[in-house]
Amino acid sequence: MADKMQEQIYIIPLRDAKRAPSWKRSNTAIKDIRKFLAKHMKSQDVKLDRTINERVWDRGAKKPPSRIRVRAMKFDDGQVQAELAEE
Questions:
Q1: For the chain, is the Cβ count within 10 Å smaller at the N or the C terminus?
Q2: The dihedral sign for the CA sequence 71, 51, 65, 21
């Protein structure tokens, strides 16, 4: 892996996941996290850590959290890796 170029902590709003049918809300929330990070970190290669997935799916498919705090790291090769930030 290349050297870390940029590191940022984001609080990502997931309230737009409510636009999806109730049984698809956590899937939509994961897609929204990827889209948010791709836009703000200016890279299409976004990898999410399993801790983010576990937090979103913690209460099932119908009730994702309304926001999530994420630490995103962008590397020299353009890849973005995100993990759950400690609170």
A1: C
A2: positive
Could you report the per-residue pLDDT of 1-13, keeping only the tens digit for each? 567 788 999 999 9
Q: How many residues are present in the chain?
A: 87
Q: pLDDT tens digit string along 15-46?
A: 999 999 999 999 999 999 999 999 999 999 99
The beta strand positions in 15-61, using DSSP E, are 46-48
Q: Distances in Å between the alpha carbon of 85 and those of 24, 55, 70? A: 25, 11, 5
Tell me the residue type at 42: K
Strands 4-13 and 67-75: antiparallel
The C-alpha atoms of residue 2 and residue 85 are separated, in whole angstroms, by: 22
In the chain, what is the straight-line distance between the N-terminal and C-terminal CA atoms, in Å?
27
Domains in the chain, CATH or no CATH each: 4-84 (3.10.440.10)
